[in-house]
Amino acid sequence: MSIREIHRQLAKKERSVTEIVEESLHRIKEVQPQIGSFLAINEEGAIEKAKELEQKLSTTSERGILAAIPTGVKDNLVTEGLTTTCASQLLANYQPIYNATVVNKLLASDAIIMGKTNMDEFAMGSSNENSSFHPVKNPWDVNRVPGGSSGGSAAAVATGAVTFALGSDTGGSIRQPAAFCGVVGLKPTYGRVSRFGLVAFASSLDQVGPITQNVEDAASVLQAISGHDELDSTSVNKEVPDYLSALTGEIKGLKVAVPREMLGEGTDPLVKAQIEKAVKQLEALGAHISEVSLPNLEYAVATYYILAPAEASSNLARFDGIRYGVRQGKNLLDIYEQSRSNGFGPEVKRRIMLGTYALSSGYYDAYYIKAQKARTLIKQDFDNIFAEHDVIVGPTAPTTAYRIGEKISDPLTMYLDDICTIPMNLAGLPAISVPAGLAQGLPVGLQIIGKAFAEETVLRVAHAFEQTAGRLQLPALGGVKA
Amino acid sequence: MSINRAQVEHVAKLARLSLSEEEKTQFTSQLNDILQFAEKLNELDTDHVEPTSHVYPVTNVMREDTIKPSLDREKVLLNAPDQKDGSFRVPAVFEE
After folding, report:
1. Does domain B5-43 have CATH number 1.20.1050.10?
2. Which end of chain A has a smaller Cβ tally under 10 Å, C or N?
C-alpha cells in the first residue's frame, strides 16, 4: 500500500495508526520464517509510537510527511535503543546510544520504525548471503537471492511487510536488490543525504536512500531524509527541492542517452529485451533517445574493488574489541586479532585484506592512486554525456536474481555483476531502479541516472515510465508463479 | 604483480587479522584473481590525470568553536566489553 493510500485512509478515519502498525507487524511475522528480511522487530516501540502519534493527531492537524508509515531501517544505520549489528557477529549485541541523522529525520516526519533489516555483513556483498545471522530469500522465488547488500530492505518492501525501507548504496546496494525484488530503489547524489550514523563502509561512495513500492513514495522519503547536516561535513548545503512536484508525468523533449556498453555481451538477452522495450516506451512518451558510449565503463569494477576495500580497511579498523563489540583474547594484540578474526565473516576479511594490501607501502601508487585516477576518467565519461543529455538509462543489473549458492564461492564473478551500478557511485551521481516488467517470472530493473543533484529529473522520468509500464503486483510467496 | 602466501601473512598482520592455514591458502588464491583483474587498469594512460578522492570538492568545512553537549559517559560505557572507574579497561600494555 502506498503512502498516499495510507494517508487517505487516515484522513477518512478508515484505519487508525495502531491498526496500520499492527497490520504491518502481522505481515512481518507472517513472512519472516520464509524470507528473513528482519534482524530485529521493534514490536513494542512501534506500538508505543503509534499510540503517541494517535494522541498527537487528535490534537493537531499537522502531521509529518511520513506519518504512520511502517518503515524498515537497514541494520547499518544506528538506532538508539534498538540493536544495530551490521549483520556481523562482532556487533551482535551493539546498542547504539544515538540515532543516525536519517533516523531522526524519519522520526521527525512521524514514520513508525518497525525493525532493522537484514543485509550483507557491513554492506559487503551483492546477494545477502554474507549476513552472519541468516540469508534473505527473494520473495519472487525463495530459491533465489534478493540481491544485496540491502536485500532485507528490498524483500521487506516487496512482501508488503513495510511500506518503505532505508538502504545504503556503496556500489549498487540499494538499486540492485530493488531490481531483483521488483521494487523501486533510489541512490541519491553523494552529499544529498547525511551519512552521520551510517556505519561507514567506503566513505567517499556510501549514500543512504529509500527502497519503496513506487516512485511517488521514493520522492516522499527522499524529501524527508535529504538536507545538510552539520554532523556530516560531506553533506552538501544545498536547498532541498519539492520532489513530489517534480512528478509531472511529462518528459517530452527530454534527452535520454543509452550507453551501448551497458547492454553489451555480459547482459542477459532477456534483461536486454526488457530494457530495449523500456527505452521504446520512453521514446513513445516523447523523449529523444540516442546511443552513447561510456568508454571507461569496463574499468569501473577494477577501480571500485581497489578503492572500496581500501576505504573499508581503514574504516573497519575501529572494530578492535576495545570500546564496543565482542571482545576475545588475552593480551592487547590478541584482543585485536581474536576479536576481529572471530567477529568478521569471510567477505569482510577478504576486503580488509585487499584494501590493506592496496594501501600498503610499495603498492599504494600501483593500486590505490592508479584506481583514483581511473575514477577521474570514469567521472569524465559521465560529464561528457551529461553535457548533451538529461539522463542516462540502462539495466540495473546484467541478470535477474540468481540462485542462492550460485556465485558465493567465486568472489570475482560476483564482483563483476556490479558493473551497471558501481560507476554511479564512483561518479557520485543520483540513480534510481524502477521495475521494467518480468523476464521468465523474475523482475528486471530499469536504471535511470541523472546529473549531480538532479534527483527531480531522475524521479520525473522514473514516474513517467512507471505510469506507462505499470507497477508490478507484489509476488505470491513460495516460488515463481508459472 | 601477484601476492604470495608470505605477503598474505604480512598483510594479515598489518590488518590485525589472525588467519587459519586454510584461510591463508584461500585468500592467496582469491586475492591473486582479484589483483590480476585489477591489472586491467594498467591499460589506461593516466600520466596526466589527477586522482579523485572525493567527487564533490568540499574543503575546509568550518564551524563556530562553541561548547555543545557531548555523549553521556555512562551511556558510552554501556557497550564496553570491560570498564573500570568510568574508563574502558584493557589488559596491561607494558609487562613488568
Report:
1. no
2. C
